[in-house]
Hints:
This protein is 32% helix and 10% strand. The chain has four helices and four strands, in the order E-E-E-H-H-H-H-E. The two termini are 29 Å apart. The chain has a domain at 54-63 and 75-92. It has a two-stranded parallel ribbon. A two-stranded antiparallel ribbon has the order 2-3. Helix 1 runs antiparallel to helix 2.
Amino acid sequence: MVLIEGGFDNPWRMVNGKLVRAAELASGKPIPAVKTSGPLTESDIPADAFKQMKAGAAWLAKGANNPPRDKLPPDAQRMRSWVLSRWQHLASGVNPLEADELAMLRAERTDGRNPLGGKLLVVITRGIADEDGPGG
């Protein structure tokens, strides 16, 4: 198995203007089963998460064609502006269960079992530590 920029299991998150680790956000509630059929609708998304998605989309749309993307053809710039302004674009990135899922993964990693058995794992990263927070 190869992970490329596999991520950090306790990333920084901005919550109400304060930088916190995901572990501090875990609720300890059970994680529901993954929805495997049917489209995602607005009513499926918790209100706080939906609010975050809409705010994020508005922020992304403002800089959709900042340099160097200002050199894209006009049609491509219009498409980027439209896509980045949609909450649906962010739907996979705003996960209200993320902190609890990461906590579960950390617990599984430290319980001594080897979930990959004898398979090899290679992790390729850019080599910039996340320990000091964004931009650190």
